Amino acid sequence: MPPENSRLPYEELRRRWGSVAPVEILPSVTAWLVLDHQAALEVIWNERLFSSDARRWNAGIDPGWAANAPQLVMLGPRPSVSRLDAQEHRRQRHALTGVLDQIDLPRLRRLVQQQADHLVDRWAPRATADLVAEYSRPLTWTVFAHLFGFSPQSIPALEALVDAVTGTADDAAYADAELLEAMCRLVNARVATPGPDLASWLIHATPLTDTEIAHNLVQLLLFGATSTVNWVGNALRLLLSDSLVSSSVATGRLTPSDVLDRTLMDDPPAPNIAGRWATEDIMFAGHAVRAGDLLIPCLAAANNDPAILGGRAVHTSGRAHLAWGTGAHGCPAKDMARLIAETAVDVALRRLGEPRLDTPGSATVSRQSLWCSGPAELPVAFTPVHPEHRTEAPPELPDVLPVPERTRTGGAEEGETTQRWGWWNSMTGW
Q1: Residue 399 CB: number of other CB atoms within 10 A?
Q2: Best-predicted range by mean pLDDT among 24-28, 157-161, 320-324, 420-424?
Q3: What's the CA gap between 297 and 20, in Å, rounded?
Q4: pLDDT at 367
Q5: With the CA atoms of 260, 93, 152 and 204 taken in that order, what torsion angle do they form, in degrees rounded to the nearest 10?
Q6: What angle (nearest 5°) sits at the alpha carbon of residue 299, between those of residues 298 and 303?
Q7: SS3 per residue for 244-288
Q8: Contact 39, 68 (CB under 8 A)
Q9: Predicted confidence band at 93 (pLDDT cuts at 50, 70, 90)?
Q10: Which site among 96, 102, 249, 384 is 20 to 30 Å from 332 CA-CA?
């Protein structure tokens, strides 16, 4: 597989291999990269042939190897909704979506808008800003920490851990274990003292065990926070770098929501789905796939499959993307993520007037790995804006969930402790 700091030569792979290409993630670690839209749909939808459970992997992973393979941490098994199949998956997904449905979306929109306006107020008078470091990152992380039940003081540590795991840093395995430990502490605290947050609702209003809750919170943070930061960053980069898109927004042919969909199609914040495993020996797209082989649906390639692009014009949004996944394993929090991203882009458009990229040659530095893709920075210059009522203190964060009644429906057995767990510890059981 080409280096992570370059775009994969999808067309070259298609010409040589067809819809599915054999790739090497690491020396002697192979996978099938699924390139075409229809083939990706088949892998995502067909749970009978393609499992989400990494315990099926035939790679023969051992603890020493895994600890030195940061690219693989996101692929490991977990007792969470994204890594289970059949009845266990449905049980956890029903519990998770039931809690997410309790979020007051109008209040969440007001929360995001207040925080976005506050961030703009801080740097608008100086006429320059980094829209990643000073806008999309702090905005997204403030919202996610509040939703989860973490204090603002916890954000820098959580952000660093998630960046290490999704960016495949050398210490990704350690960061993954530390992130789980942080969720364990949160769960233990909310068992005794519920709050107006997702952790409390998962504990006191679902039958999930404490271990399952901790792992699902890890997954929501890994996939949700980073993807939302990158989604906002990619959308703003598109608006700043493509005059045809920005003029289409200015004339009303595109809405901010359309721009976000266009970004998911052309530059998805999560370029690859973190793994499916063949359940039996099959012929797939002309290739002999063995039971336990890893398949990686490549969203960045599938979304740009010539078979579905046709004559799509620049002023169309393009909603054939697979950025949310699809089927039973589609993203359970996509409505929440879209609300955050739409509000962030809308506030930026409303407040900044006509910003321009403030980089040589309008080039931007990207942060890319197998699992995330977005601008590492997005420096802009614009006409200074002086807020009428600027305050240094951030606005108080409104609750978007009530405090659950303390009537735990099941989950943890009395005396259960949430275990610190590294994915490489077990490929055959939890």
Answers
A1: 15
A2: 157-161
A3: 9
A4: 79
A5: 150
A6: 125
A7: HHHHHHHCCCCCHHHHHHHHHHHCCCCCECCCEEECCCEEECCEE
A8: no
A9: very high
A10: 249
- Spatial CB neighbours of 135, under 8 Å, sequence gap ≥ 6: 116, 119, 120, 129, 232, 344, 348
**φ/ψ of residue 20, rounded to 5:** -135, 130
* Helix then strand then coil, % of the chain, to nearest 5: 50, 10, 40
Where residue 423 falls among pLDDT bands split at 50, 70, 90? very low
Q: What is the pLDDT of residues 68-86, one digit of tens each?
A: 678 788 888 899 999 999 9
The fold of the 10-412 domain, in CATH, is Cytochrome p450 (1.10.630)
The H-assigned helical ranges of 55-171 are 63-67, 86-100, 105-123, 137-148, 155-166
Spatial contact of 132 and 375, defined as CB atoms under 8 Å apart: yes
- Give the span between the Cα atoms of 317 and 310, in whole angstroms: 13
Read off the tokens for 323.
């950025």
pLDDT tens-digit map of 97-111: 999 999 999 999 999
CA distances from 84 to 198, 324, 399 (A): 21, 17, 31
| Exposed/middle/buried for residue 255 (C-beta within 10 Å: 0-12, 13-18, 19+) | middle
Q: Could you state, in order of their start, the residue ranges of all structural domains in the chain? A: 10-412
The angle, 0 to 180 degrees and rounded to 10, between the axes of the packed helices 226-241 and 137-148 is 150
The whole-model pTM stands at 0.89
234-255 mean pLDDT = 92
User: 5, 6, 11, 7: which is closest to 309 by C-alpha?
Assistant: 11
* Nearest residue to 114 via CA among 396, 390, 417: 396
Report the b/e string of 224-244 with b at 16+ CB within 10 A: bbbbbbbbbbbbbbbbbbeee
Q: Could you tell me the two tokens for 249?
A: 């927004």
Torsion angle of C-alpha atoms 31, 19, 333, 92, degrees rounded to 10:
-60
Six-digit token pair at 163? 């960046």
d(CA 143, CA 135) in angstroms, rounded, equals 12
* Helix (H) or strand (E) run with residue 297 in it: strand 294-297
Mean pLDDT, residues 126-131 taken together: 94
For 395, other C-beta atoms within 10 Å of its C-beta total 13
DSSP 8-state symbol, 295 = E
